[in-house]
Amino acid sequence: MPEPFPAPPPGRAARLADSARRIAPLAWPVFVGQLSVLAFSTVDTVLVARHSAADLAALAVGSAAYVTTFVGFMGVVMALAPIVGQLFGAGRPADAGRQLHQAVWIALAFSAVGCALLLFPTPFLALAQATPEQADKVRGYLAALAVALPASLLFTAYRAFNVAVSRPKAVMALQLGALAFKVPLSTALVFGVPALGLPSMGVLGCGIATAVAMWLQTVAAFVLLRRDPFYAAFRLRGRGLDTPDRPAIGAQLRLGLPSGAAVLVEVSGFTFMAIFIARLGETPVAGHQIAANLVSLLFMLPLAIANGASTLVAQRIGARDLPAARRLGWHGVIIGAGLAVFNGGALYLLREPVIGLYTRDLAVVAAALPLLAFVALFHIADATQTVAAFVLRAWRIATVPLVINATALWGVGLGGGYLLAFDPLGVVPPALHGAPGFWVASTAGLVLTAAALSAFLARTLHRQRRAAA
Asked: Where is the chain membrane-spanning (predicted)?
């Protein structure tokens, strides 16, 4: 059960430090685990970049298609976390366990839809205006990821449950194990092992390695749920999978569908950049892939803080300690934004040697380098809006964030990026044509999102405080 939550020490700075001390034990395992997840794509990017520019371009388009498909469904399944967190905080572990069973049904249902989208990726290929050779590479890569998708969504349910009950280290251990398995397997499949008669597969090898690693990780999670005595209080074992419970599934979907849609809007606004930039040729999209991977790497820290803060807020709401819930949520936003300022600035200063770690192709370096000029502000805004959205989700508020995301990230970010990059009206300065135009518009959209979500969170907490007075 969650530990008692004593009153914080006096003073604003002391209260902020106290919140940081409580968030940190939940955030750092999530951070390490998410880094290992990101390392899946980072390893793929580095390996494929050294294999061929054509495979790297196919990886960019294929990754965008997979992420766009996966993240919306992931956001729905992740609605399990605030629901379980509140039940756990209220001292109802058996009810929390029943919610996990229902999340498994949701994950399986969305897996069927997602696999169909990945096996028939014609809309993504049309948007990217992929060449026949590139389209063949993308189709093979996505077919392998279609095999990985059910395991990924089932593991998402396991992750959401464990984070909600303050057990993120169990997730981290499995994620690190999957990465340790994937790295040598990806290397062997991308470049081939002639001594073993294994041919070079390029980007397809990355997809196969991901599918194998994800299923092994998910099977290991199932074994832990069955055997670890920690889970006994949740009554997960001994009765098989519960039959679908319409009220429980409905409660998860009411929170999960707008949450998943908001995540889909956010991520698709970013991933569709890669699809549109692919129209400009292999070199621009390869440069964008490197910049996008670096932004994703930076994002792991605020995502971890968002998970930690959201978990504590949900638990405090369940325990009816609303002042602590309000304080922890707002402090999470401050901590996430502050760390983003430091990390974004550091990457900007070190951008040249960092890009050199990815590729020695001077044309790709030249394409990637200007994009990193936008990374610092992009990351600060991204960190702020992410923590604010997670805290709102802990209060079971998801519809307003969806509206804000759709307006700012699709309208300003993606729509504005298209107008700048392709200049259909002939009025955009040449410096903003191509990939830089998308990055400028996406950064502007994220800044608007961060400002709007932070203001809405502040208003929500203020109204809740007044209602409790």
From this structure: 63-88, 100-120, 140-161, 173-196, 202-225, 255-278, 290-309, 330-350, 362-381, 402-422, 437-458
**103 band by pLDDT with thresholds 50, 70 and 90:** very high
67-97 in b/e burial notation, b at 16+ Cβ within 10 A?
A: bbbbbbbbbbbbbbbbbbbbbbbbebbebbb
**Given this model, what pLDDT does residue 371 score?**
83
- Amino acid occupying residue 37: V
Of residues 254, 250, 270, the one with CA closest to residue 405: 270
Greatest alpha-carbon span in the chain = 74
Give the tens place of pLDDT for each residue, 221-275. Answer: 999 998 999 999 999 877 788 999 999 999 999 999 999 999 888 887 877 787 7
**DSSP letters along 16-58, please?**
HHHHHHHHHHHHHHHHHHHHHHHHHHHHHHHHHHHH-HHHHHH
Phi and psi at residue 417, to the nearest 5° = -65, -40
Q: What is the dihedral of CA 213, 187, 125, 120, to 10 degrees?
A: -30
pTM to 2 decimal places: 0.84
DSSP 91: T
**Residue 122 pLDDT:** 85
The CB-based long-range contact list for 394-397 (8 Å cut-off, 24+ gap) reads 394/82, 394/85, 394/309, 394/310, 394/311, 394/313, 394/314, 394/317, 394/325, 394/329, 395/313, 395/317, 395/325, 395/329, 395/460, 395/464, 396/82, 396/255, 397/460
